[in-house]
Design goal:
alpha/beta; eleven-stranded mixed sheet; two-stranded antiparallel sheet; 13 strands; 26% helix; globular
Length: 371
């Protein structure tokens, strides 16, 4: 019953997923196409859809865009801007589709949470990537993954289990990789403790979980961007704190001391923290975007995704926002602290949220995350 109620809440929220997105701003000129036979072993029957533009780059970049619970590949294709960007910049978009009732993703089973886990959704999505790279001579250095809600959970899982495949990831309102793990190894299981923001661990503990998902791996890991709303009542805001702790821990940064903090960026009410800024990563290697008075889920922002992925107009310059946001940037101080308890409460009304949203928030009321 709890899972059914959650799915109803997610369905009610779906109409707000893309408010403010420029999904319709770029005309789509090709069509969404299903691909079969992309994997030698796909017992879960995870489906693969792709958007390949009529004018394809010689060595195209690839974006994997993963839908939310109750969603489909068609829904995410229609309601996000990625296919339009494919037409404009000659890249390919993969839209996986969950095979389960309710169309959430399996981010709970033992095989889903490990590299080359036989029969899992994560393995199927990895096989989709390698298929596309081979068939279309794709650029293996420019493969990216993103998703909303359950798709954001899978984005975390893909970055942890197949780090060698991805250059960067953006998760819209998800949970840390491994947070939804089932104690019994059940497939496509709901984890209320995690969803309610009660799975609280140290950065070292989260880092160990990620490392164990691909034991022995010592190569490069994808830049990771976390986005979450302060009044998310489906996957509570504490999950923002935990996800940031996870990925800053993986990269060896202290979540409590970001290199840069930008208020009211990329829009009013949002606070953006960045870690690991250097010449190759002008936006950082880890970035957290905390959206005050936004519920489930944070709307997809296609232009910001392109900047984080360093694609399209940002392919050589990194990001125009590095200079644009300077006036609203302050250095993080040593007095910033990591949240160790339930999120604080805010009373302002939501502007983008589900019908079931509450007013819990992981901030101090100033619009900044409460570390």
């Amino acid at each position: 019953m709890a899972r059914f109620t959650t799915l109803v809440s997610l369905l009610a929220a779906a109409s707000t997923f893309f408010t403010g997105s420029n999904a319709a701003a770029i005309e789509k000129r090709a069509s969404l196409t299903q691909v079969t036979g992309f994997s030698s072993s796909n017992p879960s029957n995870t489906k693969m859809y792709i958007y390949v533009p009529a004018k394809l780059s010689a060595k195209p970049a690839v974006i994997v865009a993963i839908h939310f619970c109750t969603g489909t590949a068609q829904a995410y294709y229609s309601q996000t801007p990625y296919a339009g960007y494919a037409d404009k910049y000659g890249l390919i978009v993969i839209f996986p589709e969950s095979p389960y009732s309710g169309t959430c993703w399996d981010v709970s089973s033992t095989n889903a949470l490990k590299h080359d886990g036989s029969g899992s959704d994560s393995k199927a999505i990895a096989d989709m990537v390698t298929y596309i790279l081979s068939k279309y001579s794709g650029d293996a250095s420019k493969v990216f993954v993103t998703g909303s809600s359950s798709g954001a959970m899978m984005t975390n899982v893909m970055a942890a289990t197949y780090p060698e495949l991805f250059a960067a990831a953006t998760a819209y309102s998800g949970v840390p990789a491994g947070c939804f793990a089932s104690s019994s190894g059940a497939v496509d299981a709901w984890n209320s403790q995690c969803a309610q923001g009660q799975s609280i661990k140290t950065a070292a503990q989260w880092t160990a979980i990620v490392q164990n998902m691909y034991a022995g791996y010592s190569g490069a890991r994808p830049r990771f961007q976390v986005k979450h709303g302060s009044i998310d009542s489906t996957l509570l805001p504490q999950n923002y704190n935990e996800t940031v702790k996870e990925w800053t821990g993986v990269f060896g940064y202290n979540a409590a001391t970001p290199a840069k903090r930008q208020f009211n960026f990329p829009k009013s009410g949002y606070t953006t923290d960045s870690w690991g800024i250097d010449s190759a990563n002008p936006l950082g290697k880890v970035q957290g975007v905390y959206a005050v008075n936004v519920g489930h889920t944070v709307p997809v922002d296609g232009d910001q995704d392109l900047q984080w992925f360093q694609l399209g107009p940002y392919a050589t310059t990194g990001s125009a926002t590095t200079t644009k946001a300077t006036s609203s940037t302050v250095a993080a101080t040593s007095t910033t602290r990591v949240a160790t308890s339930a999120p604080a409460t805010t009373t302002k009304a939501a502007t983008t949220t589900s019908a079931a949203a509450t007013t819990s928030a992981a901030s101090d009321g100033s619009g900044s995350p409460q570390w």
